Amino acid sequence: MQDDATILNDTLDRLLSARVTPGLLRAAEEGTWPGALWQELVGLGLTEIFRGMSDRPWRDAAVVMRMAGRHALPLPLPETILASALLPEEEFDPLEPIAIIAWEEGEEAAWPWPDQVRRAIGISRDGTAHWLAREGEIGAPARSLTREPRHAARVKRGFSSGADARLLAALMRAAQMAGAIERVLALTVEHARTRVQFGKAISAFQAVQHQLAVLAGNAAAAAASVDAAFARQDRSEMPVRGGMAVRDTMAERDMMVAKIHAGEAAGLGAAIAHQLHGAIGFTDEHTLHFYTRRLWSWRAQFGNESEWARELGRTICAAGADSLWLAIATRD
Q1: Quick check: 64 pLDDT over 50?
Q2: 199 is a domain residue
Q3: In a domain, 297, yes or no
């Protein structure tokens, strides 16, 4: 019998496979908000996972975030789900898209989808989450690597949370990267099977097989690390509403490891995929770039693997030598 997470995974995979077409992605990158798809996803209750809709909310959030990455979903669904866990009950509207952005006091914000997203959570480098609303006119448009519409905007700040929201945002991006890497692997394997060179499919060449194995191994490592980090969140006693605090040291480490593995897999996986696709993988007509551009963008957001590797080392050292073996050998 399938469990709830498997059913959610399969249902969302079918839905997004049908809805998130290359045409929709290109239209979104030109500034067209996929409003009908947003309403459909909201109607499924996906923005309310942390509002009593799930017995294991982190597990289900992981499924949705990975599927969003796997299909390059051009909507802030993962951000809205995480925002629902960070915000007090009275501040959250499940119908309203919410952005999560890097932001420091006194700076303008790089505001995505300014015509549709009215509020955002700004996360500073110290991990504090700030509830932001736009103030006044928005500035000139700019584009991220994902080609998501962004505008410079002055903001006014509402409440702030002491939660280590930066680490939670890093975990969100790790889940999206794990999903995107799975898609990159599938595209690359299919290309290797169908691309003929010297009279046979390039997948028959040992060097190509080796590269595919490296890509598959990194995809599996990223997925396993992400799954472990989300599973620990469900086992912890952390609150999931209104300014949660990350109090579980092992949970912190698992989140760091997830972002590190996903970031490493993103860099290496995108390089292998483009190498094996050759010139066609760099064209706008091919779909590979929808995923690799997102991998490059998400890898850098809320701390890259080098930053989190240093932080992980400091965390382990601070715990003392006696805890080192326990940290390596145990998962509970």
Answers
A1: yes
A2: yes
A3: yes
* 167-222: pLDDT as tens digits: 999 999 999 999 999 999 999 999 999 998 898 999 999 999 999 999 999 999 99
Asked whether 162 and 86 are in contact (CB, 8 A), the reply is no
The DSSP result for 206-223, as a single string, is: HHHHHHHHHHHHHHHHHH
Residue 286's CATH number: 1.20.140.10
Record the tokens describing residue 138, joined without a space: 């928005």
pTM beyond cutoff 0.70: yes
3-state class of 157 per DSSP? strand
Looking at the domain assignment, is residue 1 inside a domain?
no
Has residue 61 been placed in a domain? no
283 Ramachandran zone, left/alpha/beta (phi>0; psi -120 to 50): beta
How many domains, in total, are found in the chain? 1
Distance CA 81, CA 51 (A): 10
Parent domain of 183 = 165-329
